[in-house]
Amino acid sequence: MRNVLNTLRVLEEVAARQPIGVGELARVLELPKSTVQRALITLDTAGWIRPASGEVTRWALTTKALAVGSRAGGDLGLRGMALPIMENLRRHTEETIHLTVPEDGKMVLIERLETDKPVRTNMALGHSLPLHASANGKAVLAHSNPEFVRQLLVNELPRYTETTITDPDQLQAELSTIRDTGYAVNRGEWRSDVGAVAAVVLGDTGQPIASLSVNVPFSRLTAKTEPAFGTAVHKAAQTLTTRLT
């Protein structure tokens, strides 16, 4: 029973202080490092926590904890906070809206609101998107720790379509543009028939915790709709950021 309670205490502290390492957890909880380390291994194995930004010495919650928390906390969860904002964005754009969160070097879809239009994009909840080849991922990368971005660019970036950005310098330039405009655009870079415009949602520390996106068949991403979607999704993401912080 004591081991279970200690594990739950560790989970609560990770949620409150993420990203956090074993040493700080041990000091805060007044527990031996070995006890904390065992709890972290258990939580990692069960899928409740993950290495933060790829650093195995610091930990953060996964979407599993987020999903349980949003069901228990109702409107206090990320989904609950985001849904009315997503609904307003859907009404304004008349397109499908996605809420994604970064996890394990990808973006994971945790909520969506579908357009009423017969031709639409289709993606299941829990589906993951590449960071460098999705609007959601690029929006998050543009506001991520520069060291995390550099680590991503050390390895060869996978190419999914003819428009996928795989050159590190080109991607860095794209991220700079995203910071200037306030939104990211996917012009068929992951799937050639899908386009999207996304903006980052920031947490208390100013680090990206999610992104909102407007998702359309590529034929509906035009010179006219792209900036209009960008302005709308940027405003929605700012509203969600304000409510969460």
TrEMBL record:
InterPro entries found in the cross-reference section: GAF-like_dom_sf, HTH_MetabolicPath_Reg, Tscrpt_reg_IclR_C, Tscrpt_reg_IclR_N, WH-like_DNA-bd_sf, WH_DNA-bd_sf
Organism phylogeny: Bacteria, Bacillati, Actinomycetota, Actinomycetes, Mycobacteriales
Single GO term (MF): DNA-binding transcription factor activity
Record key words, sorted: DNA-binding, Transcription, Transcription regulation
Residues of the IclR-ED domain: 64-245
Name of the protein this chain belongs to: IclR family transcriptional regulator
GO biological process: negative regulation of DNA-templated transcription
SMART domains named among the record's database cross-references: HTH_ICLR (SM00346)
Organism expressing this protein natively: Nocardia tenerifensis
PROSITE patterns reported in the protein's UniProt record: ICLR_ED (PS51078)
